[in-house]
Amino acid sequence: MTGVVLNNVVKRFGDVQVIHGVDLEIEDGEFCVFVGPSGCGKSTLLRMVAGLEETTEGKIHIGDRDVTDMDPSERGVAMVFQTYALYPHMTVAQNMGFGLKMTGHPKEVIDSKVGEASRILKLDPYLDRRPKALSGGQRQRVAIGRAIVRGPDVFLFDEPLSNLDAELRVEMRVEIARLHEEIGATMIYVTHDQTEAMTLADKIVVLRDGRIEQVGKPMDLYRDPDNKFVAGFIGSPSMNFVKGEATGGKVTVPGLAAELDLSVNLPQDGRKVEVGVRPEHIELDAAGDTHVVELTEALGGVSYAYLVAPTGERLIVEERGDYRTEKGAKVGVSYPIDKVYLFDGETEMRLR
Ligand SMILES: Nc1ncnc2c1ncn2[C@@H]1O[C@H](COP(=O)(O)OP(=O)(O)OP(=O)(O)O)[C@@H](O)[C@H]1O
Ligand SMILES: [Mg+2]
Predict the structure, then answer these.
(1) In a domain? residue 104
(2) Which of 17, 110, 207, 208 is at 20 to 30 A from 194, Cα to Cα?
(3) Where does the chain show beta strands of DSSP type E?
(4) Together in a domain, 55 and 11
């Protein structure tokens, strides 16, 4: 069993604490994705698992081994970075086999492992080329191949696709999903990309300022966020939030025709709340005139309308197909009651 377990893991750089007691269990064979805003500690946490950063406090286990103080080479992990860092003077095959050669493996073993990795990654036609004669996607596949030949228990990926153009990203995303299916190894993957997180992950870990906000399956986080941060972070475009007031068991939102009669435990009367609703759940009412359409965007399959509420708050509405809403028009909005999320105005925790 080669799951990864973090117990109360802390990281300080000098006086600055960047990871604040993280507890996390990643199961054997699981695809775990770290997401969170820039600077929240995703790379640091990954590098601590890899052994590239010392762990200030706490314990890291890989399988049943305590690796907290082990060298990176002893941990059974292989890391793939955003920049592929291939050796320019070596061929693809030499690049992939280099690690094994350095550790004294015989040529037959290296050839067979490189052959296996290049089959999985469809790199056979390129084995004799040098990196400069490859596309970005092919180079990144070589970097992944270099990880595969080492036969690690755990693969660590730090934004491996962020240097690729949009089309290649999609292609490589599918390749990585296939790789995980075929190899079945535990993988930890850092990304900024919503689609990568949602589609690749068995489990998403949402980080903020060095702490875990929520852990769960992609669609569970999407449907059932614990707080406003997770609600706003998972899903693209983001969930809309408007300020409201909880009075007499109902929620009033300025500019919204009806009060919201939500079956949640509302705080005391007059308490400030935030109402969250996803772009795809807002319904536009052409007969209304409370909101102004500031901008519309037609993307083909979907369109977005950017609205300004009477309070000055901004809302994004997603519509299927071509846009029906005109820039400058006035519209009303409503949302189905069962699609509305409610958050405490102060703590930002979900009210259920
Ligand atoms: N060697 C270091 N010395 C001091 N501070 C560091 C060091 N490395 C990272 N940090 C700080 O730790 C925090 C977390 O950085 P980290 O690189 O883990 O963030 P990240 O979530 O990967 O961000 P990004 O999405 O931009 O890659 C940041 O505030 C960063 O400035
Ligand atoms: Mg990073």
Answers:
(1) yes
(2) 17
(3) 4-13, 16-26, 31-35, 57-62, 65-66, 77-80, 154-158, 186-190, 203-208, 211-216, 240-247, 250-252, 271-277, 283-285, 291-298, 302-308, 314-320, 330-334, 341-344
(4) yes
Same domain, residue pair 220 and 192? yes
- The SS3 call for residue 221 is helix
Q: What would the two tokens of residue 109 be?
A: 């073993």
Residues 6+ apart with CB under 8 A from 309: 242, 254, 255, 290, 291, 315, 333
Given the CA of residue 159, which atom of ligand 1 is nearest to it? 27
Q: Is 42 in the pocket of ligand 1 (CB under 6 A)?
A: yes
pLDDT of residue 264 exceeding 80, the answer is: no
Instruction: Indicate the SS3 state at residue 330.
Output: strand
Tokens for 190, please give them.
Answer: 């850092």
Using 50, 70 and 90 to split pLDDT, how confident is the model at 334? confident
Distance in angstroms (rounded) separating the CA atoms of residues 143 and 329: 51
Residue nearest to atom 24 of ligand 1 (CA): 38
Same domain as 172, residue 35: yes
How far away, in angstroms, is 170 Cα from ligand 2 center?
Answer: 20
Task: Give the number of whichever ligand sits closest to the CA of residue 158.
Answer: 2
List of residues 6+ apart from 181 with CB closer than 8 A: none
Under the banding of pLDDT at 50, 70 and 90, the label for residue 246 is confident
Burial of 88 per CB tally in 10 Å (0-12, 13-18, 19+) = exposed
Q: Residue 267's domain spans which residues?
A: 237-344
Least reliable range by pLDDT among 30-44, 51-65, 296-310: 296-310
Q: What is the CATH number of the domain that holds 172?
A: 3.40.50.300
CB atoms near residue 191 (< 10 Å): 22
Spacing, Cα 39 to ligand 1 middle (Å): 5
Distance from the first to the final alpha carbon of the chain: 37
DSSP 122: T
Closest CA to 211 of 18, 30, 76, 38: 18
**Do 306 and 296 contact (CB within 8 A), yes or no?**
yes
DSSP bridge partners of 88: none
